[in-house]
Amino acid sequence: MTFDWIDALTTTPVNGVPAFPERSPNRGEASECEISLSTSSRDGIVALVAGKGWRWAHTALDTAGFSKTADGHRCLPLKGGDLRRTRDALHVLGVLTQMAGVPVTANTKVFIGDFARDLAEYLPGHWDVWVESYALQTWQGDLAAWMWSPSLTATLDQHRVPRAALLKHPDGVELAVIEDPTADRFHVGALHPSDLFPDGLVTPPAGVSVAPEPAFAAVDVSSRLLPAYARAVLHCQVNAVEEDLDWARSALSDAAPVPLPTGLVEAFARFSDAAPQICAAVRQLAALTEDERAALQRINDVVAAPAISPDAPAIPRVSPVDWWLKEAGDSLVALARRAVPDAEPTTAKSDRPPRGPAAGPSPPPRPGTPRAHR
Fold it and tell me: How far is Cα of residue 213 from the mean position of the Cα atoms in its chain?
């Protein structure tokens, strides 16, 4: 099917057009929306909606016979034996939109979902991919709030971005793809990890601008964006570890007391959670000697042990908390700083409480979180 079929829906008459259900929104809302139709090699014809009348548009698409995809969009098949149904559905949609005065346009650019899925196939590992549609400009604020790459944040703040594709790796890395509002290219950036505190001392991973050629785009993402993301995450983690160390040492005069204060237990738990990830990142990003690799392995073995036992060869002879404060913490921080050349040591704040959940209002929904109204 070509774009001529899409254009034909605004001119071809259809008999027996189905009426809207009684529950549909007032037709007056239809004047405040528009429908864009893209062709996708995977999904067929994909309808994306913009404007306050998005409910009306969704009802029109459903009435015409569009199917709902897993990520909430409406589509029609372009392959197999359903082409007649596709042609009829386009004709019905044409009549409904003409009656309501709703503009329908054919988007000739590469569908963002196709680009993102093709890009994911060239990236290392497996990535889940989905497309989000922002019928209202305020909806794109959810993505902007979690965006870590400054150039994409600026685009989301300054321009209308009607859709984005999200890619998620099993290890937690999340990327976003948005269309350039002024040129035939895409911008790819990283979302801030949900389990890390924002850190103003960390250089955010810079986004990349790429042509709609997935294989070439994957080279830029793999060689520039993903390494920058790994360094930024490591920088955040090592700053947090060092901050906890500074606080714990200022709060203790000598050996850790028994029983341990709650804040100290929580700080050690954070170190135990972060240490394996830091060790893995340092091995990947830094050139290490055999002794340094052995030191990382010892730290990893201790924090990964299911139970602290003085009989286990990798377990320190002192208490785990004393070992963390007097040996492991400094060793891990020093090695991690070598892997992040631009990392600056944090400033100790002896009067601050241990790190904990940030106070204040809850953050906006994470991109990809199901929303009942979309």
Answer: 21
